[in-house]
Amino acid sequence: MTMNLAAEVAITSESQLLRRSAPLVIEFTSSKVRTRPLAARAGGIEIADGRLPVRAVDIDAHPDLRRRFKINLLPTFVVVHDAVELARFVGPHSRRELAGAIRRALDPEMVRLEDPPQARGLWNDFTTRLWGFSV
Q1: Which domains can be identified in the chain, with CATH numbers?
Q2: Which of 28, 65, 81, 91 fits a disulfide with 23 by CB distance 3.0 to 4.6 angstroms?
């Protein structure tokens, strides 16, 4: 079974990811999945600077792209710019959820934490064990 994606929404090689003027949202899906990919249903994702295009990759037809992006779960949405991954979202998401998450990921004002936050005290023992923090 093959996925019938229009040529303008399908990505078939890594060369299609290079030298792009704007970021691109790639949806990794499979021909075995019964739902249509977001790339086939939506014209793009609205952000402040305009509309980001959404393209789809059928991992059954293009296992090299699956390996390159280390895709383990479907659907996975990857935001790339010049073949560099900027953000990744795993699991089913609505277009609105994706748009909000992508806006936050592309925002240069967003604070990025290198280390996870530390627990404030022993009263939060469950959280410290859950996240693996030392007390």
Answers
A1: 14-131 (3.40.30.10)
A2: 81
